[in-house]
Amino acid sequence: MPKENLIWMDGELLEESRATVPFLTTALHYGLGVFEGIRCYHTARGPAIFRLDEHMQRLVNSAKILGFRSLPYTAEELGQACKQVVKANGFEACYIRPLIYHTSAQRSMNIDAGVAKVGIAAWEWGAYLGDEALESGVRMHVSSFTRHHPNVMMTKAKVTGNYANSSLAKTESVRLGFDEAVMLDPQGFVAECSGENLFIVRDGVIYTPGTPTVLEGITRDALMELAAGLGHRVVETQISRDQLYIADECFVCGTAAEVVPVTEIDFRVIGSGKMGPITRAIQKEFFALVHGEHARSAEWLDYV
Ligand code: PMP
């Protein structure tokens, strides 16, 4: 029998097969959960979690946005628990998935009629869009599904229910033979992908959609700082679908995906059809950063 991963369930480390929730858990029925995706990287000083504090802050912010008025743990305690999960499993590098979920004895969808429970899992996870995609890039299309309106589903919160929208888009993409979907906001401007933020480069300037309708990606934020450090101008603005087609470069980023060039959108080749020089430079900085080899690594890595 292969060794089972250990999952932290409300303070206790349980083997994966024992880390279960009852069928009537309201989170399962109404999408009432909030989660994070965090990566822990191998470094010369041992495993290190990238921007743990920011992820924990976003997690408790997501819970607040969804309406939880109290949580059983602080952001700091949840961060410690993430480290405990990495250590207990003996991982050198892994993906960490905390989830705060709603459970209600009355089976009510009223947040106040239930309580928050917390689980934190971790597993060894390679490049989300494939190892090859990091160099060769991905092919995308503009989804037939629109990204959330911020007054319909809160776009700053990683609410589990929000991801039904991502799942519709991702499944459609893969069934059509693409790797990932570009989703437009309700006004028709580029928002984000099913699980990544998006950037384009044109005439040496980097553009990305502003945050009103997209998740405030932690990788997005890091890349904006890295790009500025390399002397590039980064502009947050509305981007139209046709501006994607005529970009010199395009790349997407996220905790799971990391930094991936986009070589084709809706059957239009982007730029040279290969990873562009600015994307390459930013990707290189990113991997140096997360592996503890960048001037700013100390600031953004939390050694386990
Ligand atoms: N947008 C969406 C919809 C996402 O799910 C993610 C992944 N969390 C991102 C963007 C990228 O965010 P981050 O860099 O914080 O992982």
Features:
single chain, 304 residues, alpha+beta, 9-stranded mixed β-sheet, 8-stranded antiparallel β-sheet, globular, binds 4'-deoxy-4'-aminopyridoxal-5'-phosphate
Q: What percent of residues adopt helix (DSSP H or I)? A: 25-40%
Mean pLDDT: 97
Inertia-based shape: globular
Could you say which small molecules are bound to this protein?
4'-deoxy-4'-aminopyridoxal-5'-phosphate
Query: Kindly, what is the distance between the CA atoms of the first and last residues, rounded to a whole number of angstroms?
Result: 28 Å
| SSE run | EEHEEEHHEEHEHEEEEHEHEEEHHE
Instruction: Tell me the fraction of residues in β-strands, as a range.
Output: 25-35%
Radius of gyration: 19 Å
What class do helices, strands and sheet pairing give?
Answer: alpha+beta
By DSSP, the count of extended strands is 17
Segments where pLDDT lies below 50 for 5+ residues?
A: none
What can be said about the biggest beta sheet? 9 strands, mixed
- Number of H- or I-type helical stretches: 9
